[in-house]
Amino acid sequence: MHHSRNGDRDSMKNTLMTLTMLTAALGFGHAAHASSDGAWAQFATAVEKACIKSASSQIENGRAVVDPYGSAKYGLAIVTGRPSGVPKTKKLADISVICVYDKKTKAAEVGGEIEVGKIATNQKPR
Q: Per the domain annotation, does 126 fall within a domain?
């Protein structure tokens, strides 16, 4: 019996696709099962520390509000505090930055400064 090349190639693609989906399903199930409250707390602490450190060039003594779970690939936080390098005698509103924390590499990056007032008041009435 002679198989066509396309038939063999399609069969191989289907087999690889099935294996990929099975591996992903097993991996996600295991990850969700292994994630205890303690693991999530450790994750939130890691995000908080990395984000505050990453924001330190923009914000002095930052405070972080961490999304407890993040997204599939990233930890997420908002870091707020006094702008860095401004004399203590000068009255300024706090600023915030959005921080993303790569779950794989454990590297944190922050965006540009956002005035705190804009976060709360940028909503349009419905």
A: no
Cβ–Cβ under 8 Å, residues 64 and 85: no
pTM: 0.64
pLDDT per residue of the chain (126 residues) written in tens, 0 to 9 = 554 445 555 554 544 444 444 444 444 443 444 468 888 899 999 999 999 999 999 999 999 999 988 999 999 999 999 999 888 888 888 899 999 999 999 999 999 998 776 665 555 555
Q: Is residue 65 included in any domain, yes or no?
A: yes
Phi, psi for 55 (deg, rounded to 5):
-85, -5
Domain identity same for 84 and 103: yes
Q: Given the DSSP bridges, would you call strands 74-83 and 114-115 parallel, antiparallel or unpaired? A: unpaired
22 and 43 belong to one structural domain: no
Range of the domain at 14: 1-34
Q: Which residues contact 52 (CB under 8 A, 6 or more apart)?
A: 59, 62, 63, 64, 79
Total domains, the chain: 2
Domain assignment present for 82: yes
List the end-to-end C-alpha distance of the chain, in Å, as a whole number.
69
